[in-house]
Design a protein that fits this description.
Blueprint: E1 3-5, E2 11-14, E3 17-19, H1 24-35, H2 43-51, H3 59-77, E4 86-89, E5 92-95, H4 103-116, H5 122-133, H6 148-174, H7 182-191, H8 196-208, H9 212-230, H10 236-246, H11 250-253, H12 256-263
Antiparallel strand pairs: 1-2, 2-3, 4-5
Helix pairs in contact: 1-2, 1-3, 4-5, 4-6, 5-6, 6-8, 6-12, 7-8, 8-9, 8-10, 9-10
Length: about 260
């Protein structure tokens, strides 16, 4: 069994340790097949992803040579496997990856579980998402996303990461851990200043930590930023959090598990 990791630089781990995929073209080939999530990728798409505008004269032979090289590499990592992981289909090339063998697949499954979880499961949700977010070792592919398919996949997984962070912060706030997540929330809001939900969560965490003035200052700065960057006003949800802080809404200081459900 192999473990493929793309939430960070590409890694392949075997029972005896990590294995190296050498060469940019080989790494691009593996990454493109991995993010296709078990679906065949056409030869034309692989050629474009690997070479871009610098397509070799005999592209079919060049691609087949790299596929054969990858097959040999993976076969050497799993000598007991009866069939090749890389198979050829009428619609293209496919890399077989079982459930649990790709970190990005496991991460997405966890996020979807968290989205479907009940608010009363906040402790379990926070624990699951904390472990899932710890899987990230850096940007997807370590920032090495050569072509369009890998770039789109990287953006998709990054959006799942943002969603996981939001869901985890929601769960932590429901549990009353406002002060414990303040630093992380401030960092998330700073790094993603147009993502309003981080701003809502930071305001609530500040208010519930006894920092009302700071919470309102975060809102004012967010309002100016939205106006300067996009020419828009804060969303109704964000304005509702501000109003709740201004009038000391009991929901903010009450049952932490229901706070975000009432305000978001």
């Amino acid at each position: 069994m192999l473990k493929f990791s793309i939430l960070g630089a590409l890694q392949i781990r075997t029972v005896s340790g990590p294995a190296e995929i050498s060469g940019d073209l080989q790494r691009t080939l593996v990454q493109t097949l991995l993010v296709s999530e078990g679906q065949p990728v056409s030869g034309e798409s692989l050629v474009e992803e690997m070479w871009g505008d610098a397509v070799p004269d005999n592209q079919a032979n060049a691609l087949q040579a790299h596929v054969s090289r990858l097959r040999r590499k993976l076969r050497g990592l799993e000598p007991g496997r009866p069939d090749s992981r890389v198979t050829i289909h009428p619609s293209g090339y496919r890399l077989t990856v079982a459930e649990g063998e790709l970190d990005a697949g496991e991460f997405v499954r966890t996020v979807r579980q968290a989205e479907a979880a009940s608010p009363v499961d906040a402790a379990r949700t926070a624990r699951l998402l904390g472990a899932a977010l710890a899987m990230w070792r850096g940007p997807v592919f370590g920032g090495f996303a050569a072509g369009t398919l890998c770039q789109l996949a990287g953006a998709r997984y990054e959006e799942y990461r943002m969603r996981a962070m939001e869901l985890r912060f929601d769960a932590e706030l429901r549990l009353g851990r406002h002060a414990a997540v303040l630093a992380e929330l401030a960092e998330a809001h700073t790094n993603h200043p147009l993502r309003e939900h981080f701003c809502e969560q930071l305001m609530i965490a500040l208010y519930c930590s006894g920092r009302q003035a700071d919470a309102l200052d975060v809102f004012r700065r967010m309002r100016r930023h939205l106006d300067d960057e996009l020419g828009i006003q804060p969303s109704p949800a964000l304005r509702q959090v501000e109003s709740a802080i201004l009038c000391h809404d009991p929901a903010l200081a009450g049952d932490a598990r229901s706070t975000l459900l009432q305000l978001a």
